[in-house]
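notes to self, project folder thing:

trying the whole complex as one job this time. last attempt i did each chain seperately and stitching them together was a nightmare. two parts in total, labels are on each line so i dont mix them up again. if this works i'll redo the older ones the same way
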Amino acid sequence: MPDDSDELDSVFRREHGRCVATLIRVFGDIDRAEDAVAEAFTIAADRWPHDGLPPNPGAWITTVARNRAIDRLRQESTRTDRYIDAHRTDGPTMTNEEADQFTLLDDLAEVLADDQLRLIFLCCHPALSADARVALSLRLLGGLEAGEIAAAFLVTEATMAKRLVRAKQKLRHNHAPYRIPSPAELPDRLHVVLAVISVIYTEGHRTTSGSELVRRDLTGEAIRLARLLHALMPDEPEAMGLLALLLLTQSRADARVDGDGDLVRLADQDRSRWDRKLVDEGHRLVRTCLMLNRPGPFQLQAAIAAVHADAADSAATDWPQILALYDQLAAIRPSPIVEINRAVVVAEVNDARTALAALDEVEPTAQIDSFQPYHAVRADLLARSDRPGEAVLAYERAIALTTNDSELRFLRRRSETCEAEHLLKDPLTRQR
Amino acid sequence: MAQYLISVWHDEDYEVDFSSADAQRQMAQVGQFNTDLEAAGSWVFAGGLQPASSATVVKADGDEVSMIDGPYAESKEQMGGFWIIEAADLDVALEWARRGAAACEGPVEVRPLQGG
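result (full assembly):
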């Protein structure tokens, strides 16, 4: 094996969630499953470089992990019953017959797929906080360490470790069931899962200096999870929509940052640098979604991204089509964010002044006032409406709310341009 | 089977006029909810509480006992009543909680009991 650590890494990423998912069902306990899988990977790292990769690495890991966990249980036999009672995750456990067949993992593909879904829905249980869902998903489904997750979300490792312990404790104390939601519950429960994956992607997509590598990992992990969910629930159009949206967004990753690490707006991106393979895959998924005719917010956002991807440049974009999609999105799931994005499109279909009027219809709540994109968009529209003085004020508000270095530089450049224009235009009445 | 506390929360100065149409409706809804809990074999115990202003805090420090007027938590929200239910798992408990919240027309908190 020439590239031992890479090989092991990729097996780890691929198999961690699957192995943990099955072992949680077998042992009814998250911590025991995690520990056993970690131990099995340590053994693999030791043996595989000499023995070579086994034909089914996932099955190897799961079997070794299961045997290790059983050994541990035997060693602790005096307190086993008490331990298991106290650490039980409710749900179906493995029968002896199933356990006998356990090495023939390929025959149990359906059972294993169900385990993965159980774990996905457990990590994204609505009784957990949004932060805890994201952390637990990355830990259990993605196999990331607490320190890696902490680095990506800019919190200390201790904080993240505590968050994970609390989340697992809450699930245990509450007897959270290890099951796939019923059809009646599914739409709500699935929406939570899609939101978690979307948050993981967005966090990774926001380029920030320092932890760039970990963040890039997050976009990859989010896409992997979206692919997994789509594979496990092929009939769910929203799962397909999310995957399409992430692929289409990811296709622009190289073009959205320039040589200095600064953000490049969609309109200014060099579209020859868009990843055509991802665009094509995203397009195919969007077309399949449309045929299912059960529209939802992720499908609509994916469709919007697909229309962008169709255009050779910003001017060639089918803006009326995008506006129609935003109108649908606003009807299905109205939100200030949709209204703000819609205003940007109105500027293209009509003009900046009309867009500004549309933006001013967004109710100016305290939440909106502290929402950075609102001020950034408003500043841009003011600048394009030939109101550079007001634009500078809006840019200042946006800059005050921006934490991302690259975005900060972008906004400052724009603001300076407006200030210069404003001074040229009206040097005496410059208002601050 | 596990047991869960489902508690009902009000503003601290919440006062209920039992003759009002709102209270009558809520009481009827809660009565129906209790009947459903019993029919499902999930009912363990339930009770409505007098206002939080009727509470007394008692502290025992060795032989020293002190009493202070008022509820223990200095909070704008106080517990107004509760159910203890038995449920197979969290999702079943959350579904009962949803129905309980609808019946009493206010937020409820679900918390598992130890040893379940």
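what i see at first glance: Chain A is about 70% helix and 0% strand.
need to look closer tmrw
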